[in-house]
Design brief:
three-stranded antiparallel sheet; Four Helix Bundle (Hemerythrin (Met), subunit A); Rossmann fold; binds 5-S-methyl-1-O-phosphono-5-thio-D-ribulose; 14% strand; 2 domains; globular
Length: 392
């Protein structure tokens, strides 16, 4: 069972969990191996957790946040300084190390800031007490995410009728969160309520999260799923078989512009052209009060080899470069609504997103945490190969 995620038992796997007490470890389902191999990895140190996030063994904005919270515990557990000042220095070091793993998903920074703020507050306590407090905070972040997913699912399900065809892109399901997902949450709840749903899953080039992950988890749940090439989505939407499109998000700006897996923008534009409603499902932890519009969202750029040599098979000529942004930004005007844990937020987003965050005490709390002097929310402190550059 997942920590705090009883509602995912029906899927029969655990995306991430903590095993044991303060001397325990995080256990991840290695998503780079799915669906061919279902293998868990046990992670007991900061660098292995950071590496798991970078290489997408754990991925999806909320799951990255949870992994970072556990990674934080592992980082401060290693060589914990007794005195308060060196402890604070170590906390900053661990936070920065994890913050440099992936720049776009704001849930990473939300979770790290929450952990770092608490760690600074408890600096005067004994080392063992600090670790126990931080582990229970990481477990709370995990449990809360499971609850947010369930609530998103209940709101998402209200948009889904019996027999509907739904198109999704990438994986925003149980594999991407601490619970039943965001984009897939409404589908799971509608299915649970007895409605028949047909899901169309874009394969999601270049890393195939749709073909490998979304198709895997939906088929385990007994939900009718069909994989298609990303390029086939236009024809599918034009054919009238898609009633609505739902995707997840990695970061939502205050004006509603939304970063999600590369290709999402194209799908949203096509949906708009054919008057098919395009929704984003995301918890309030994915909204970023520090980002006014899409142009300020840092977009992760990954190794071009993922495009030129997908799954390790070189398909492009050896000398050819590849451009590999992991995300793109969908303009707010293409988004019919945001399915959140507090309901469906509709335009005008400049006003409704502010109202959403203002009425959500935890969102307001983390918004404050996101503005510490020198705080990095992915705009800087990134390592070579993980920063956004213009197309070559
Ligand atoms: O690169 P990934 O696989 O981490 O990208 C994931 C996505 O784009 C998801 O749609 C997003 O993180 C939302 S997950 C609930």
């Amino acid at each position: 069972m997942k920590e705090g995620g009883e509602t995912t038992d029906f899927l029969g796997f655990s995306t991430i969990r903590w095993e044991g007490g303060i001397d325990g470890a995080a256990v991840l389902l290695d998503q780079t191996l799915l669906p061919q191999e279902v293998r868990e990895i046990r992670i007991g140190d900061l660098e292995t957790m950071r590496d798991a996030i970078v290489r997408l063994a754990v991925r999806g904005a909320p799951a990255i946040g949870i992994a970072a919270a556990y990674g934080f515990v592992l980082g401060v557990r290693d060589r914990p300084p007794r005195d308060a000042d060196p402890w604070r220095a170590r906390v900053r070091e661990v936070r920065e190390r994890l913050a440099s793993s992936r720049p776009t998903a704001v849930n990473l920074f939300h979770a790290l800031d929450r952990m770092a703020r608490l760690a600074a507050r408890i600096a005067p306590e004994a080392p063992e007490a600090r670790l126990a407090t931080l582990l229970s905070e990481a477990l709370a972040i995990h449990r809360e995410d499971a609850d947010l997913c369930e609530r998103i699912g209940r709101h998402g399900a209200t948009l889904i009728g019996d027999g509907d065809g739904i198109l999704t892109h990438c994986n925003a399901g149980a594999l991407a969160t601490g619970g039943i997902g965001t984009a897939l949450a409404g589908i799971y709840v509608a299915h649970r309520q007895g409605r028949r749903v047909r899901v169309w899953a874009d394969e999601t080039r270049p890393l195939w999260q749709g073909a490998r992950l979304t198709a895997w988890e939906l088929s385990r749940a007994g939900i009718d799923v069909t994989v298609l090439c990303d390029g086939a989505a236009a024809g599918l939407i034009a054919s009238g078989r898609v009633k609505l499109v739902i995707t997840g998000a990695d970061r939502i700006a205050m004006n509603g512009d939304t970063a999600n897996k590369v290709g999402t923008y194209g799908i949203a534009a096509l949906a708009g052209l054919h008057e098919v409603p395009f929704y984003i499902a995301a918890p309030t932890t994915t909204f970023d009060p520090g980002t006014p519009g899409g142009a300020s969202i840092p977009i992760e750029e990954r190794d071009g080899e993922e495009v030129a040599g997908p799954l390790g098979i070189r398909v492009a000529p050896a000398a050819v470069r590849a451009w590999n942004p992991a995300f793109d930004v969908t303009p707010a005007r293409l988004i019919a609504g945001f399915i959140t844990e507090d309901g469906i937020v509709r335009p005008p987003y400049e006003r409704t997103i502010r109202t959403l965050l203002a009425s959500n005490p935890s969102a307001e709390q983390w918004a404050r945490a996101l503005f510490p002097p020198g705080g990095d929310r992915g705009g800087g402190n990134r390592e070579k190969g993980n920063t956004h550059r213009p197309p070559p």
